Amino acid sequence: MEVAGVPLFSFISLILTVVAFIIDIVGFATPYWYYRKIAALNDVTYKAGLWKICTPDCINYENSKSWQEAVQAMEVLGFICLLAALVVLILKLFVMKDKQMLKWVVVGSLVGAAIFILIGVCIYGGEAEKELKEHIHFAFAFVIIAAIMAIIAAVLLFLDK
């Protein structure tokens, strides 16, 4: 079965990869890995992401701890792998249809992206202070969802002919 001349599993893999890429961008870029509204301080909101801390004005991290830099590095590598997978998958499906090697490059890139993203999540979960872990927010969940979608896309592409 085909959709627009593309095998069904490959087409579904493309859709999942695009959605995973968009979700990863949101989780990667927004300062909502941590969010807390402190009622005792006149409902002051405190939020933080991989790159900024906002209370209410946003500032870039300065003097980051080594675990924060490790999380940033893993998430950047995951993002780059996801971008590479998306570009190569589009080339494979629409330009170089006969190049089977590109399929395996995409599968490897998707699995690599998921591994890097999940390593970053694990480092954050293991090293962050208790306060940060108790108030995680949507961006943290988005990168996890993106990693899961990348794994599903890789499996579907692997199963395709």
UniProtKB/TrEMBL annotation:
InterPro entries associated with the record: PMP22/EMP/MP20/Claudin (IPR004031)
Species of origin: Mytilus coruscus (Sea mussel)
Annotated localization: Membrane
Keyword Metal-binding set for record: no
Taxonomic lineage from the root: Eukaryota, Metazoa, Spiralia, Lophotrochozoa, Mollusca
Residue spans crossing the bilayer: 12-34, 76-95, 102-126, 138-159
Predominant location: membrane
Any one Gene Ontology cellular component term annotated for this protein: membrane
Descriptive protein name: CACNG5
Keywords: Membrane, Transmembrane, Transmembrane helix
Membrane topology, from the record: Multi-pass membrane protein
Record carries keyword Hydrolase: no
